Amino acid sequence: MKKLSNYLAAAVLGLGLYSCTQGEKKTTADVNAAPREIWSVEKANDWYKQWGWLRGSDFIPSTAINQLEMWQEDTFDTATINRELGWAEKIGMNSMRVYLHHKAWQQDPEGFKGRVGKYLDIADSHKISTLFVIFDDCWNPTYKIGKQPEPKPGIHNSGWLRDPGDLLHQDSTLTDTLETYVKDILNTFRDDKRIVLWDLYNEPGNSGYGNKSMPLVQKVFTWARQVNPSQPLSIGVWKKDLTELNKYQVENSDVTTYHNYGDPADHKKWIDSLRSVSKRPLICTEYMARSRNSLFSNIMPILKAENIGAYNWGLVAGKTNTKYAWDTPLPDGSEPKLWFHDIFRPDGSVYRQAEVDSIKMLTGVK
C-alpha cells in the first residue's frame, strides 16, 4: 500500500442491554475474541448495494454546542432532533453522521445507550439511517461533564470536543476505559440495521497530533474487530500529508471513507486517487464549504454520479457556529456575508432556496 502514500501526496496535492434491532433477536459477542479480518472487497460491495445512494449531513441539533450537550440526560433534546430530522427528510436526505463521546457514556452508561437508542428511533421514523463516530481529534482538547459553555460569538465550533483529547496522553488508565466504552457501544448496537457504519475515529492526527494518534487508531480497529458488529468499520482519510495514517486507515477499513472540502477538480482527484488503491465502496463523510467552492450544486452531482455516499457538514445553524468559516471569525457575532456550512436556520427556513432546490432535484423529492 505504499502506493497510497505516494499517490495521495502527488495526485491530491492542490486531499448489550437495549434491543435496537426493530424486533429482531439481540445477539451479543465475545468482546475478547480474536479480531476478525477486514471484510473482503466482495462483501463490502455487496453490503453497499443494500443502501442505495446515501446522502445526508453531519448532524448535531442546533441546541447543542458539542457532543456532551447533545447526549447528556439534562440536555438531550428529542423535540429539536425530531423537528430538524424532519426537515432533512423533506429534502430527500436519508442518513446522518452523528458523533458520540465517551465521557457521556462514562457518566451514565445505561442511560447513554438508552438515549442512543432513542435517537435511532427518531431518525428511523424519518427514514434516516445513522453513521456513528466514536473518537475525534478536532477542536477543544479538554472537557468535563455538566453544563457546557455558551458559544463564543462568531467562532466556528468554539465548544466542540476532542475525544479522548489530551487526557489520553496524561492518564495511563484511560485506555482501559476507552476499550470498555468501544466494546460496550458496538456490542449493544452490533445488529442494529438502522446503523450504516461505525466511523471509529474522526480525523486522527488533527490538532497537531500527527502520528501520535496512531496507537489509538490501531487499538480501536482491534477492539471493534473483536466485537465484530454486522456493520462495517472505517476511519476516513482527510489529509494527504499524514501518509502513515492514511495507509493504515485505508488498509484496515471495510469501506473507504474520506473528507474533502475542495472544489470539483480537487475532489475528483481525491476520488481517482482513492479508487486507484481501493476497490471498496467510497463514502464522503464531510464536504461542502461555500467559500472554498465546495457546494451542493457542484459536488453533490459528482458524488451521485459516482455512487459515493455524500455527507455535508451541517444541517441546521445553531450553537456550533458552523455558519462561520474556520479561518474567518466574526467576534461581534454578526451574520457572515456567506455561510460556511449548514442548510437551515433554527426556525426551519432555508439559507438558500436554490441550494435546497438542487438537493431535492438530486434526491428525487418534489
Automatic annotation (TrEMBL):
The keyword Transport does not apply. Keywords: Carbohydrate metabolism, Glycosidase, Hydrolase, Polysaccharide degradation, Xylan degradation. Gene3D superfamilies: Glycosidases. Residues 181-295 form the Glycoside hydrolase family 2 catalytic domain. This is 1,4-beta-xylanase. InterPro entries: GH (IPR017853), Glyco_hydro_2_cat (IPR006103). PROSITE patterns: PROKAR_LIPOPROTEIN. GO terms for molecular function: hydrolase activity, hydrolyzing O-glycosyl compounds. SUPFAM superfamilies: (Trans)glycosidases (SSF51445). It comes from Pedobacter psychroterrae. GO terms for biological process: xylan catabolic process. Pfam families: Glyco_hydro_2_C (PF02836).
